[in-house]
Structures are given as structure tokens and as C-alpha cells.
Amino acid sequence: MYWLSKKRYKIGFLIPTLVVYSVFIILPIIIAVSYSFTRYSGIGKAKFLGLDNYIRLFQDKLFWISLKNTMIIFVLAFVLLLTVAFLIALLLNNRLKAVDASKALIFSPAIIAPIIVGIIWVYILDPNIGILNNILEAFGASEMKQKWIGGEFWSPYSVAIIYFWQQLGYLVTIFIAGLKMIPNDVMEAMRIDGANGFQEVKYVIIPMMKTTISTVAVLVITGVFKIFEIVQQTTGGGPNHLSETLVTYSYSMTFTSSHYGYGMSLATVTFLLSLIITAIYSFLTKEKER
Fold it and tell me: Residue 245 phi/psi, 5° resolution?
């Protein structure tokens, strides 16, 4: 009887969380997926189309452009952002002077609203009024001036840089927290055995931080597929949708063009792609652990 009452007690705490999660997470996903099989403009009744929206999606040139831009940002973020954040965390974890000030400085972009981040970088990268092009011109390097934002080629790379700048401090903080969990006696034993810094990282730090690294990797994967405000504020997806990401293109189709069904199919594919990449990463890391 005591066991049953204890179990009911635990379930009582879980029910409110499950209700909130179902209403605000599960239900919107179900509604979005159901609308992805329809034609709906926001007025009148939705017309069921079956797989027509998905067939149209894979024939849509702008979908492939937005997918390409998203994958460019993803690859750069997954490789460079993770690596740089980890290296900075290793550096700051040492007992250096002004480490606390450095941590605060690096983390500060993470607490700035994404819209403000976009405005800051517009004043840096805008091809007409941006500081970067003005500096290049002042140093006699006018031929290096580019359409850093708003151009088809450079826009995804610029968005990636802005995303790096905003997320770097957040990821560094998580890595530092993971480093603090490594027992000092383990590190001291390695040093007594004559291990150098590289060997410490390879044989102790990375193996003992696998869970932290996996967590950060998943945050990067899901974060890239949610980038919206930065693109909207810097390029707006232009010119002619050529700098769209999957999220901004879905938003544009849904709320600007009122193609709710098609926009929801884009959102569904974006969600599934993020889910698949996360699942593949989790599977590969578990296989390595075995």
C-alpha cells in the first residue's frame, strides 16, 4: 500500500508537466502536420490535398536554396563552433588572471535579444553603411568589399558568423561546467605520469566529457534549425528569397504569402530533418562508446 501511494504521489507531480507539454508542444506539432496535407489560406475551410504539398516542396527551387543555406550554417556551426567553444573553455578553465572577466565578456552576447544582435551586425556587414566595407575602403582594399548580407553567396556565411558570435559564450559556459566535473586527482595523476596537455585532453578530458559534448552538439543541431530572427533582421531572406533558411522560408510561405498548408509542410520537413540528424548523431556516439 505504501508503494502504491508513493507511486500515485509521483504521478501527481508528473501530470501537470505532461498536460502543459502536451498542450504547448505535442498538440501544435499535430496541428501543423495535419495542415501540411491541406490547402489553407487562413480563410474558409482547409482542403485536403494528400501529399501534394510535399511533392511541390521537393520540386521547389527555393526549398533547395533554403536547405542549402541551412546546411552550410549547420556544417560550419557543428564543426567550427563546437571546436572553438571547446578550445576557449579549456583556456578559460586554467587559473589565469582576469578569467572571470573574460567569461563574462564571452557570455554577454548570449543574453542579447536576437533582434538586437541582428541590428548590431547590420551596422557591421551592410554593404552600403556597414563598418566592414568602410574599413576595407579606408585601407585601400575596395576590391574586397562584398555583399556580406543580402547576397546569395555570402549571406549564409554571414548568418553563421552572427550565430557563432551569439552562441559561443553559452556553449563555452556549458563546456567549463563539464570541465569542473573532472576530478582534480585524475588530472594530477596524469601530470605525475608525465602526460602533456594534448594527452590530457585526448585521454582524460574528452572521454570524461562525452555527455557534455553530446549535449552541446544536440543544442547546436537544434539551434541551427531554429535560426529565424538573425536572418529576418539582417537579410529578410532576400534578395528574391536567395538567402532564406528553412525556418524563414516556412515563415514567409505561411504568414506572408498565406500558404498555410505549404508553410506547414516546410516546417514539418525542417522538424524531421533536425530530428533525423540528432538521432544519427546520438546513434553514432553510442556506437563509439560501445
Answer: -105, 175
Q: Which three cell numbers stand for residue 22?
A: 502536451
Report the alpha-carbon distance of residue 267 to residue 247 in Å, rounded. Answer: 7
Q: What is the pLDDT of residues 256-278, one digit of tens each?
A: 888 999 999 999 999 999 999 99
**Closest C-alpha among 138, 139, 136, 111 to residue 125:** 136
What are the extents of the domains in the chain?
49-289
Cα–Cα distance list, 49 to 246, 252, 261, 262 (Å) = 22, 21, 9, 10
* Domain 49-289 CATH superfamily: MetI-like (1.10.3720.10)
Alpha-helix residue ranges (DSSP H) falling in the chain: 2-21, 27-35, 52-59, 61-76, 82-93, 99-107, 114-125, 131-138, 155-180, 184-192, 197-200, 206-208, 210-224, 229-234, 246-251, 260-289
pLDDT per residue as tens digits for the range 275-289: 999 999 888 887 666
Q: What is the pLDDT of residues 61-119, one digit of tens each?
A: 999 999 999 999 999 988 899 999 999 998 888 755 555 666 777 888 888 888 899 89
Q: Is the dihedral of CA 147, 149, 155, 160 positive or negative?
A: positive
